[in-house]
């Protein structure tokens, strides 16, 4: 028996899935770089200590978001929300910028270049986590993610993660024994050296800079051109009528 016509046609019957292999490959490569760098660090160091770094956490988040987005692009499924992809890009950009402008800069006052000598596989993981993934994620977002879908309010919501990490780092340092290895993950969070007031001041300065970067991403999303066609770019769901 043939069911009567209900007048409802599934969306997938109207608009067939459009696979985006270029997007899938690009995001998968960035996710793979993040996973590879993280795995190397986990093998070479203490897992709990390694996982306490913002660098590792932001790379893992990037791997999850870009990995899921790559799979959806390969399958022709709708992309992840724009705020999610842009947020992961923001956090990994923070990782890259803080490392190159602060931690690896001897004139910054918070340099870590004299504390640890990187050799062998640590050089590989360091480059992957601090250079390859931030640059790769930025290029993917700029060139392969269709503009639109971000709102000003997203910049404020994104700041909850850096704030949560700041609190986590201080609480972790407070409950660890004095003199413990890597008690504070970054020099600007070292209470023993700067005191709580100094660390709070550092947190406010970095927080304002991170918020400015988040606002820049939202602003850039509104003015950057659509450089590619629909077939090889990510189009944010809900950013326009059904096409």
Helical content (DSSP H or I, runs of 4+): 55-70%
Order of helices and strands: HHHHHHHHH
Number of domains: 1
Mean pLDDT: 86
Structural class: mainly alpha
Taking the alpha carbons of the first and last residues, their distance comes to 34 Å
Strand content: under 5%
Number of strands: 0
User: What's the total helix number?
Assistant: 9
What overall form do the CA principal axes indicate?
globular
Largest beta-sheet characterization: none
Low-confidence stretches: 228-243
Please tell me how large the radius of gyration is: 21 Å
Summarize this structure briefly.
The chain is mainly alpha-helical. It has one domain (18-228). It contains nine helices and no strands.
């Amino acid at each position: 028996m043939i069911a009567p016509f209900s007048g409802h046609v599934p969306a997938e019957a109207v608009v067939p899935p459009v696979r985006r292999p270029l997007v899938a490959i690009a995001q998968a490569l960035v996710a793979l770089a993040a996973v590879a760098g993280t795995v190397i660090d986990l093998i070479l160091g203490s897992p709990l200590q390694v996982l306490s770094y913002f660098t590792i956490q932001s790379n893992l988040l990037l791997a999850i978001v870009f990995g899921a987005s790559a799979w959806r692009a390969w399958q022709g499924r709708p992309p992840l929300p724009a705020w999610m992809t842009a947020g992961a890009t923001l956090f990994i950009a923070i990782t890259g910028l803080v490392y190159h402008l602060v931690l690896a800069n001897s004139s910054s006052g918070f340099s870590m270049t004299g504390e640890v000598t990187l050799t062998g596989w640590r050089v590989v993981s360091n480059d992957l986590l601090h250079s390859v993934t931030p640059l790769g994620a930025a290029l993917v977002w700029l060139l392969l993610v269709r503009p639109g879908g971000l709102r000003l309010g997203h910049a404020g919501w994104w700041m909850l993660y850096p704030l949560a990490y700041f609190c986590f780092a201080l609480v972790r340092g407070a409950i660890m024994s004095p003199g413990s290895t890597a008690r504070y993950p970054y020099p600007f969070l070292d209470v023993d050296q700067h005191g709580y007031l100094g660390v709070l001041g550092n947190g406010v300065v970095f927080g304002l800079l991170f918020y400015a970067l988040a606002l820049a991403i939202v602003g850039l999303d509104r003015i950057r051109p659509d450089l590619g066609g629909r077939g090889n770019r990510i189009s944010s769901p809900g950013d326009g009528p059904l096409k």
